[in-house]
Structures are given as C-alpha cells and as structure tokens.
Design a protein that fits this description.
about 15% strand, alpha/beta, 7-stranded parallel sheet, about 50% helix, Rossmann fold, single chain, globular
Length: about 240
C-alpha cells in the first residue's frame, strides 16, 4: 500500500539522517548490555583457555580429533575451555571439555547465515557483535591455542599477537598446534616481517609451536608456574582498557 502523499513528503534526507543517528545512539546501549551480560556470566570460569580452529573440519578429520584431545586434557587439568561455539574444531574443543571435569564454554555469534551452535556447551553466550565476542575470548583466557583454520582463525591469532605485543593485555602463551600447517606463515614472519623490520626478532618468541596435546598443557603450566593463573592488580587494570 502506498504511503499517503503528506507522509512521503515528510520523509526527507534530513529526517532519515536523524532517524539513523537515533538508531546508532541506541545501539551503544545494546553493546553495553552485551559486555555486561557476558562478563557476569563468565566471571567464574577462570582459569580458562581459548581454542580456535576451522569450522569446516569434520569429526573424522585429524584436526578435529586433535582439538578434542587437547580440550579434554585441558579440562581434566582444571582449565575451562572457551570456543566459538560453532561446528568443526570449535565443536571439537567444546566436546573434549564437555566430557572432562571443567566447564565447556561457547561464545556463539549471530550471523546472516546462522551459525549452528554445537551441543557440547555447559555455558553458552550469544553475541551480535564480533568485537564484544573477541574481548571475551581474551579477557578470560590464560592461553590461546590455535589449530589449523581459515580467515576467522587467522583473525583471532593476529588479534592475540597484537594485544600481547602492544601490552594491551597480559603476556600469555599463544600456541600454534600442528607445525606443518603453520610452517609457511612462520617462515614469512621470520624472513619478511623480521628481515624488513616490520616486527622485532623478539616478537617471534610470543609464539609457541606444539604438536602433542600433553605438551600443550605442559607449556601453559610452565608459563604460569612462578606466578599463578590469576591476573595481578596491574594486569587487571590493563584488561579494563581492552
């Protein structure tokens, strides 16, 4: 049904701009509520490890099985396991933790083509905004474990490296699993980024490359053996500015 002529005349570019600005302002409150709700729900899960990897790996794939084994050992060692809550290696991580002794946490995201949430989540939190979800992956993690994956996985990896490198979050183990998959990227880091002074040679020490589930758990314990898992008061202040 056509709008009355008077109403059509009132819908000017200025009116549309004001309407858009009002929607943008109200969106701030939605973002605030997302941060508050997630922080309250997740505050008790520490220590936790965030695990990333491809959404396309099937349960028969070696990467899926590797992710499940790592998550199970982390869960049995006392770590909550955080994943993106979807299929593939996200599901493997949640599944391994779900059948372990510590909580399995899924940080799900609403997408235009709806992401399917996996069934192995003790705690499930859904986000509309990628950036709010990203903050929670970092805020509650004592380590990052990154299995083979695509653009989303690389995005999370680079985010973690940038935050640790720049001191916007505390230093934590960033562990790449399955060295053959990452070899080309690491060679490029060393022979291009370091060689052309885009990063310091010491920045390569931010990354651990590990192949076995047991060694992943041991590396995390080794990092924290002299200081404990809880953030210091100074680190808490830093994390407020994520």
């Amino acid at each position: 049904m056509d709008l009355p002529e008077k109403l059509q005349q009132s819908i000017t570019p200025e009116f549309l701009e004001k309407t858009w600005s009002a929607r943008e302002s109200w969106r701030v409150f939605a973002i605030m509520s997302e941060f508050v709700e997630a922080t309250e729900r997740l505050r008790a899960i520490r220590p936790a490890v965030s695990i990333f990897g491809s959404s396309r790996s099937t349960p028969e794939h070696p990467y899926y099985k590797l992710g499940e084994a790592i998550a199970r050992q982390l869960s049995d060692a006392g770590f909550s396991v955080i994943s993106g809550g979807g299929p593939g290696i996200m599901e493997a991580a949640n599944k391994g933790a779900f059948f372990g002794t510590s909580p399995s946490v899924g940080l799900n995201i609403q997408l235009p083509h709806e992401q399917r949430s996996n069934a192995y989540q003790d705690i499930s939190q859904t986000f509309q905004h990628f950036f709010a979800r990203k903050v929670m992956f970092v805020k509650f993690a004592t380590a990052y474990v990154v299995l083979p994956g695509g653009f989303g996985t690389l995005d999370e990896l680079m985010e973690a490296l940038t935050l640790v490198q720049t001191g916007k979050t505390r230093k934590m183990p960033i562990i790449l699993v399955h060295e053959p998959f990452w070899r080309g990227m690491l060679d490029w880091f060393k022979h291009t980024l370091v060689a052309e002074e885009m990063i310091d040679a010491e920045d390569m020490h931010l990354i651990h490359v590990i192949n076995e589930p047991k060694a992943v758990v041991e590396a995390i314990f080794h990092h924290y053996e002299k200081r404990g898992f809880e953030p210091s008061p100074q680190e808490r202040e830093v994390q407020l500015n994520l």
